[in-house]
Amino acid sequence: MLELLHKFWSRSAHIGDSQVLYRIEKYRLRQAFTLVELLVVIAIIGILVGLLLPAVQAAREAARRTQNSNNLKQIGLAMFNYESALKSFPSGYVSDPRTGVVSTDSLDAAPGWAWGALLLPYLEQSALSDSFDMRLPAWHPTNAALAVTPVPVFLNPAAPNFDGPTIIKHSSGTEMAKMSRSHYVANVGNDEPWGYRPALADWNRHASGPFYRNSRVKVKDVVDGLSNTVFVGEHSTVSDKTWVAVMPDSASCPSNPQRYPFTQCDYAATYVLAHSGPSAIEPGIIHPPSFPTCHVCQMYSPWAGGGGYILMGDGSVRYVPTTVNVDAWAGLCTIAGSEVTQHDF
To answer: Does residue 244 contact residue 179 with C-beta atoms inside 8 Å?
Structure first.
């Protein structure tokens, strides 16, 4: 620019100052964008952003799906390490009536530790596990501060209810405790043993899946085959779950009853467990993953299009669409139903 001015001024003796200024101004105007050019550039940028945004969103969702699938794979590996060490899969949750803390409504009792808490040493969470005093109830003051510790493997990055602990509420609606959030629930089978009245002391005869109160299911008990049995699935959006424990007299309720009018509060066990149906109190009704009825006691996930990821007993992770054959889904949720199922999802 300085060289250009020098040339202009060096010629000023021949053409006059006014002509020099005119040429400088004309050159300056020639270097600026016109309004039309500026609008064209803005339009092009808008089109590029519009083209890139869906691709970025798709990439983010793919990453979330991958993380979610990896979480389930880690849980599956922990299940097998637990079984290898203790010769059975973990209980759905632990309830000991001898503690004296027994719910008259469901017969749940302390200490309440759920399958997720029992798996901690096998999920590279030994330090957290060792910090708990599992001889005491999970909600005891000794354990309460640790019980809200987030554990990433139990969190689905796509779930809308991602932040903060789960608020454990009494059946009356009052807050009882806070426990670390989970977006995964274990499979109790077809029936819902927590739904019987009078309440069942022993769930063994009514729970057809691998995880229930005080369960001790071994590999040999899974007669249908590990590759044909659902172990764990997603649950988010509809209600808040936990991996920590089941607290007597608590109730798992929908996060937004107006959005999910087909469901209502259910018993404490549904903080950590889910069933497929049909049940004794709902004959013929089966709940595939993310089925629109949206019960707090079914597997439900945030993915668009309907469906959900599940962990099978052999450690494989599969996506099951909501449109899966309901009888096939019910068959996959039992450990010894002798069903013949086709599940090429």
So the answer is: yes
Extents of the domains making up the chain: 2-31, 54-332
Predicted local distance difference test score (pLDDT) of residue 328: 95
The tokens 């749940």 sit on which residue?
108
If phi over 0 gives left and psi between -120 and 50 gives alpha, with beta otherwise, what is residue 278?
beta
Residue entry with tokens 């005491």: 136
> For residue 1, what pLDDT is reported?
47
The single residue listed with the structure tokens 């990433």 is: 152
Compute the distance between CA of residue 266 and CA of residue 287 in angstroms, rounded to an integer.
Answer: 15
**pLDDT value at 9 more than 60:** no
pTM (two decimals): 0.85
Output the six-digit token pair for 17.
């100052």
Written as six digits, the tokens of 75 are 């849980």
Q: Element (H or E) spanning 241, and its range?
A: strand 241-242
- Give the pLDDT confidence of 168-219 residue by residue, as tens digits: 999 899 999 999 999 999 999 999 999 999 999 999 999 999 999 999 999 9
How is residue 33 annotated by DSSP? Answer: P
In the chain, alpha helices (H)? 2-10, 12-15, 17-31, 35-86, 115-119, 126-131, 141-144, 326-332
Phi, psi at 310, each rounded to 5°: -130, 150
Strands 111-114 and 317-320: unpaired
Q: What angle do CA 157, 161, 167 make, to 5 degrees?
A: 130
Q: What is the CA radius of gyration of the chain?
A: 30
Residue 270: HSE in the Cβ half-sphere, 13 Å Cα cutoff:
30
pLDDT at 5: 44
Asked whether residue 342 carries a pLDDT value surpassing 80, the answer given is no
Tens-digit pLDDT profile for residues 276-323: 999 998 899 999 999 998 999 999 999 988 999 999 999 999 999 999
327: left (phi over 0), alpha (psi -120 to 50) or beta: alpha
